[in-house]
Amino acid sequence: MSPTALPELVRVLEEKSLLPVLSGSSDALLIQQLLSLLGIPAVPLPLSIAAEEHSPICLPGDAGEVFLRLADFRQLDQEGWENCLKLLPKEKWRGVILDLRGSKGFQESVAEFYQQQLLSLALPIMILIDGETAGAPELLAANLRQGGKALLLGQKSTGIRGAGQEISLATGMRFRCPAEAAGEFTGPVVPDVELSGSDAYQRWPYVPPLSDPWCRHAAGTLTMILTLAE
Predict the structure, then answer these.
(1) Domain with 126 in it
(2) For 1, 133, 207, 210, which has the most beta carbons within 10 A of its beta carbon?
(3) Per the domain annotation, does 198 fall within a domain?
(4) ∠ CA(137), CA(131), CA(20), 5° rounding?
């Protein structure tokens, strides 16, 4: 089914009282599962992002790599980005491990800003994505890889890639779904290297980066790339 046909489908189903009356968070999950059966990814709104992850987080590694966490793509936090650069001047960076796991938001301008900033570094970038990477961060990951400097690790993303479209139910529940025209739905971003799942709270920034298996794998891969380039 084409994502562009979804609003009309919802309207018809509601007119004929064929949609269950749902409003709770567990019911939102049911709607997500129903849409998944139609091959359409959906993210419930409003987005839930931990307060400590509203701003960019950066941390230096032991070999010149920088661990960078961008979780919130609802609006640009340029001040937070500039604070990262003050703590870790770009001249000292040798490579970037960009963590986009669970990152959400649908402002494409935010993805464009970070894309320009990261590509201007001309450094190798290891990008971590998973099944909860949704919207603008998917676009960022795909575009950085297309730019030729990035390797994607993890699991395939949600599959919205950008702003998407908002679908509202009569109950007030809202979802964000893909908005591509029929035949142009690109689907999820697929990593170059697949990694096994990880617990959301057993990973950086909740634990040190090298205690996080995915970050450790990315750091090892980056070290190998930098060594071969010498």
Answers:
(1) 50-162+183-229
(2) 133
(3) yes
(4) 105
- One-letter amino acid identity for 104? K
Residue 159 DSSP class: S
Q: Which residue has the tokens 């990315």?
A: 218
Q: Does residue 193 lie within any of the structural domains?
A: yes
Contact 99, 125 (CB under 8 A): no
- pLDDT at position 184 is 47
pTM of the model: 0.86
pLDDT, tens only, 67-89: 999 999 999 999 999 998 888 87
Domain tally, the chain: 1
Residues of the chain with pLDDT under 70: 1-28, 180-185, 198-201
Return the CATH number at 190.
Answer: 3.90.226.10
> pLDDT, tens digit, for every residue of 96-130?
999 999 999 999 999 999 999 999 988 999 999 99
Domain membership of residue 178 (yes or no) is no
Q: Is residue 129 part of a domain?
A: yes
To which H or E segment does residue 44 belong? strand 43-45
DSSP state of 92: G
Could you give phi then psi for residue 91, rounded to 5 degrees? -60, -20
Distance CA 29, CA 9 (A): 19
Tell me phi and psi for residue 136, to 5 degrees: -60, -35
CA angle 181, 130, 105 (to 5 degrees): 55
DSSP reduced 3-state for 126: strand
Q: How many Å apart are CA 226 and CA 35, to the nearest integer?
A: 43
